[in-house]
Amino acid sequence: MPESSAAAVDRPTDQEAGFLILHRLLPDVGMANVFWVFECAESFRTEDFQTCLTWLVRRHPRLRTYFPTEAGEPARRTLGPDAVRVTVEQLDAPEDPTEAARRFGARPIDITSGMPVAAAVIHGSDRTSPLVVLVIHHVAVDADATGVLLDELDTCFRSVTSGAVPPSEVVQPPSTREVVAPSEDSVDFWRETLDGVDSRAMMLDVQRDLEPRTFAAQTLYHQASAEATASARALCASLGMTRNMVLMTAFYALMSAHRAGPDLTIGTLVRWQDEADEGPSVDHRTSTLALRIRADPACGFRELAGEVAQGLFEGLVHADVPFEQVVPALRTVQGGWRVPVFRQVFNYLPVGTDLAPGSGPLLSFGRWLPMGKNLIRYELEFNISDRPDTMLFSTVYSTELFDEPAVVELMRRFERILIAANRNPDVTLSEL
């Protein structure tokens, strides 16, 4: 990148530095890619989409930020809006355009030398509609931000194709938390809380006991039954807890039911908000918490929920220590696993985050074709999102460790746990 086109902002945050480390360790794997595939509408023109994508990148500084090495140290630099040139690649894949789209979505983005955005139009046979693939590196966006981006891209495309001119204003750079040393109290909290974690105790009885050689994964979608959805909501009322707390408790109970524990640690994402924000922001504002709970088989669901709520609260209070900074200081016991603290991740996603096939919107430039993640750093990732009348699961699992029928049964058993706990909140984990 020419020096005249960018200005140094500051040094990367700990979270951004973590993405840079991941990039250096896995330069040929798009582990941190977030991508969407759309089946093009009949009126689709590549030049219109390129115009809109360029407008979107110019509008949001996060999409113009990259991380070069300067004087031997990583730096964060942001291109000026006028320096942005977005290219939409044209690819031919007459045999299997869907697989070509998946491969493009997994192609690594080099955030040390260019913007964290890539796009392509993939042409299949004459009988099929082209596919649009949009890829953004996770360093720039989280789940909330992706919803903002797709909405703005859709609005811009409608304007351009109707002959209107999209707005030219540039969104101000997003606020970032001041980079300061974490408090000694928080560092001590995590060292004490996670000291001696043994990830071997978190292996489930439905997975293979081996060390994965790749990050290969598959995503399964599942819609919860009406009874399970109603049970989750009733438990929130009867226990006086949030949906996230109740569902996370059910996940711990699920792990216990499959012979993990009783000392259990899972990873979960939390999002920080800047008080100066006046609306939705395009940024990556999530961080990982490692929540350690003791799930004794004789413990009741209500009691376990209290432990989960307390653990989540304490974790949030001490969230000023980035997870990436905590791990090197820990004394852990593990069997060579890549993440030495936890194997499983549970996320309660915001309302409106589309997860399942059929729920994807028809945007002005095409219909979303959910592909799901095909790479995973962990063993199992449970994502649950609310809808007005149901809950949607998006479960990502290592294909080296799990078979599909086992993962399907995990999601169904999760529902049965919610139903049983609603009937008797004091039912013990061993009974579940």
TrEMBL record:
Swiss-Prot/TrEMBL GO biological process terms: amino acid activation for nonribosomal peptide biosynthetic process; lipid biosynthetic process; secondary metabolite biosynthetic process
Specify one Pfam family.
Answer: Condensation
Q: Which GO terms describe its molecular function?
A: catalytic activity; phosphopantetheine binding
Cellular component terms, GO, for this chain's entry? Answer: cytoplasm
InterPro entries linked to this entry: CAT-like_dom_sf, Condensation_dom
Which SUPFAM superfamilies has this protein been placed in?
A: CoA-dependent acyltransferases (SSF52777)
Domain of life where this protein originates: Bacteria
**Occurrences of domain Condensation (ranges):** 18-431
- Recorded protein name is Condensation domain-containing protein
Taxonomic classification:
Bacteria, Bacillati, Actinomycetota, Actinomycetes, Micromonosporales
